[in-house]
Write a structure and sequence with these properties.
The chain has 280 residues and is an alpha/beta fold. The chain is built from nine helices and nine strands. The strands form two sheets. It has a seven-stranded mixed β-sheet with strand order 3-4-5-6-7-8-9. Strands 1-2 form a two-stranded antiparallel sheet. The relative contact order is 0.12. The structure holds zinc ion.
Length: 280
């Protein structure tokens, strides 16, 4: 007879914007009125904590007019090559919640009048992890940017890294997306990473760290293995703030840490300086 320990429901990370009129900030524990948070682009007015928000909310304040011109990737569905237990069920639940087939989409639009292609991962779908669909969409987005000669932006929120449910096919996406970054470079296309909390694992170890500019949100956790795993492996205490955006800025991995309400104006300036004059 096999005894199985009853599975306790695991507390999930907080992938969605919290419900309710009053929201307790996980940073300072203050109760904040929802409308006030919305007006502050989901940044706590008390302590500055940046709440995790889905790509469509970013689009609302980053793109001119607040809406994308096109959305690509609504027709790409993941295979289940390993028949991994509960993979399809998890995907199906996430699809119902988000209305999109997988953890990434490609959007086109303008920022400060300059056309861009923006690829974005969505934490709400299996922690924004990268399987074959996410990798393929990154490549399609990059190719579209090359074809139209527009800057390419990758906005990431990926706690899961490469998606274990797709095994080697997920790991392969690290090489595949890296090749696409090389193609962007060969074509002289500006490629910018927008790193939000968290961007980890195979995502951070491939396309998310390869941009011409790496822009991170304050406090974002960015790295390959998480701090706990590293601490257990090397058996040393890690310095305060390890793998946070500010720490990585100090150590040269990240180029800029930009608060959310300055993200659009910063991008407009960068695009104008690095792209607009020559290509606009
Ligand atoms: Zn707070």
């Amino acid at each position: 007879m096999i005894f199985r320990r009853p599975r306790k429901p695991r507390p999930t990370a907080q992938p969605d914007i919290p419900e309710g009129l009053w929201i307790k900030c996980p940073g300072c524990k203050e109760l904040i009125y929802r409308l006030q948070l919305e007006e502050h682009l989901w940044v706590c007015p008390q302590c500055g904590l940046h709440f995790r928000i889905p790509p469509d909310v970013y689009i609302q304040f980053l793109f001119d007019g607040g809406i994308p011109e096109e959305i690509l990737g609504m027709d790409l569905y993941a295979e289940d090559p390993l028949s991994f237990p509960q993979y399809q069920e998890k995907l199906e639940r996430a699809r119902k919640r988000t209305g999109q087939p997988d953890a990434a989409l490609v959007y086109t639009g303008k920022i400060g009048g300059i056309p861009v292609v923006l690829f974005a991962t969505d934490f709400r779908v299996l922690a924004g992890s990268m399987g074959a669909v996410v990798g393929e969409l990154f490549v399609r987005g990059a190719h579209l940017a090359i074809e139209r000669r527009t800057p390419f932006l990758a906005l990431t929120s990926s706690g899961g890294g490469a998606r274990m449910q797709e095994g080697i096919l997920a790991l392969m996406q690290m090489a595949k997306t890296t090749v696409a970054v090389n193609e962007l470079q060969d074509a002289g296309i500006l490629y910018i990473n927008l790193l939000t909390d968290p961007t980890m694992g195979g995502v951070m170890a491939s396309f998310a760290a390869l941009g011409d500019l790496l822009i991170a949100e304050p406090g974002a956790l960015l790295g390959f293995a998480g701090p706990r795993v590293i601490q257990q492996t090397i058996r040393q205490k890690l310095p305060p703030g390890f793998q946070r955006a500010e720490f990585l800025l100090e150590h040269g991995l990240v180029d800029l840490v930009v608060p959310r309400h300055e993200l659009k104006s910063t991008l407009e300036l960068i695009l104008r300086l690095l792209w607009g004059e020559n290509h606009g």
